[in-house]
Write a structure and sequence with these properties.
- Strands 1-2-6-5-4-3 form a six-stranded antiparallel sheet.
- It has three helices and six strands, in the order H-E-E-H-E-E-E-E-H.
- Helix content is 32%, strand content 36%.
- It is an alpha+beta fold and 117 residues long.
- The relative contact order is 0.18.
Length: 117
C-alpha cells in the first residue's frame, strides 16, 4: 500500500497495518487498515491522499467523514478514517464506478460500526 509513499506514512505516525485481498468472480476488493494512533493523524492521511488524487470526490451517503474516492477503470479507490484507523479500499472488476461506489458505501457503513473510536 505504501508503494513509494513511505515518508508520508512515517510522517503521519503509522504504527502498523494489515491488508487483505478478496476476489469474487470478476470483482476484487483490496482493503488496508492502518493504525495511526489518533483520529487526527488518520484523517491527516486521508487529506494527504486527497491532495495526490487527480479528481477526488466526497462519498455521498456515508456516516463517516472524511470519506473520499477516485475513479479507476472498472471501479474506484476509497479513502476514509475512523477512530485511529486510516482505511483504503480498492474495488475493481465493475461495470461502472457508480456500482463500485455503492458497494463501497455498504462496506464503509458495515465496517465503521465495528471500529471503536
Amino acid at each position: 500500500i505504501i508503494d513509494g509513499g513511505a515518508a508520508e506514512h512515517q510522517k503521519q505516525g503509522l504504527k502498523n497495518g494489515i491488508g487483505l485481498s478478496l476476489t469474487g468472480g470478476t470483482k476484487t476488493l483490496g482493503i488496508y487498515f492502518e493504525d495511526f494512533g489518533t483520529l487526527s493523524r488518520a484523517k491527516g492521511m486521508v487529506i494527504i491522499k486527497k491532495k495526490s488524487c487527480s479528481d477526488p470526490e466526497n462519498i455521498p451517503g456515508v456516516k463517516v467523514a472524511p470519506a473520499i474516492y477516485e475513479e479507476v477503470i472498472g471501479g474506484c479507490i476509497v479513502y476514509w478514517a475512523k477512530g485511529h484507523y486510516y482505511i483504503e479500499m480498492t474495488l475493481t472488476g465493475y461495470d461502472s464506478t457508480k456500482i463500485a461506489l455503492h458497494d463501497a458505501v455498504v462496506l464503509i457503513d458495515s465496517i465503521s460500526s465495528s471500529i471503536v473510536k
